[in-house]
Each structure stands twice: as C-alpha cells, then as structure tokens.
From TrEMBL:
InterPro entries: RmlC-like_jellyroll (IPR014710), RmlC_Cupin_sf (IPR011051)
Protein name as annotated: Cysteine dioxygenase
Organism domain of life: Bacteria
Amino acid sequence: MASNTLEASIQGIKSVWGPLSEQVVAGCRRHLADLLRAPGTEDWLAALHVEAPANKELHRDPTHGFVLLAHSEHAGLYRPPHDHGRGWVIYAIQQGEIEMRTYARVANRNGTVGLVMRDSTLMRPGQVQVYLPGDIHDTRCMKGPALLYRFTERDLKKEDKDEHRVTRYVEKDGVWTFGTP
C-alpha cells in the first residue's frame, strides 16, 4: 500500500504499463496528473521545494525501465529544440510556467534540414504534456522557480550517451537546423 502520492502514482503507472498505446499514455498521464495534486506537506515534495534540484531522480523502475525525474528551473532557462529518440516523455508542471513549442522537421530546397515551429503551449501548474517518439520540442521557463516532473519510458540519458539517438538542433542564421554550431 502506498504511503504517499508519489508512491501511489508509481504504483498506478505500473498497473497500466505495457507497450506504447493510447491506453498506456492516457494511464500514465492520469497518474502524473494525480502526482501534481500531492499536498506540499508530503516529505518528498517539501524536500523538492527546499532543495530545488536541477535534476533529481524520483523513481527508476527496475522491471519496466521507466524513469521519473524532478527538475527545478529558473526563469529564462531555455532548452533548444530536441527530440527524445525512440522514447516518449510526459512533462507535468507542479510550480511555475514553462513554454513548450513543437516543431516539424523539413528538408529545404538546398537539401539542408530545418525546423518549422508548429505550436506553442504555456504550461501552468497542474498541466501535463505528452511527446511521442520523434516529436520535436523546446522548453523555456517563463515563470520561476518552476518545478516540473519528467517521466520517460526509458533512460534517455543512457540511450543518448550510448546510442546517440536523441537529436538536438542548433540555430544558424536564424534557422533551427540539425548539426553543430
């Protein structure tokens, strides 16, 4: 039996886990939304507010491989466009405001690859956003300090380091493109 909202959310995610499907994503999304309603008096959440870690692992599932991280961000922190390789990710905002823009990858006439911004969403406390494999997005902390949870269906840091599956984009002459600056 779960002793707090974090443990209950993890148990809930485990109960709906399976291969990527609408049902799995919806179930994980629902349990992360529940996590956002945790009372600030729960020890784990109170500690996050005091510590304000840039990156803290809250749970790593040894059976299913998913990872839940907490990130504290200051206003203005920007993470350029990237995808998550073959993994999918759910962001949940506990505090602050984060702008997340999505992009489409397009080939230009000269053969170079660029990005076209598709949409922009200002995420506020209580909101949850899903990015599926291949989705490209950036993040900017608009109101901080922000506290967000990032749920990944696999260890993306390891996958990026070992297999170089995460694609990052850089801005060249006002255009987002694949490659090094």
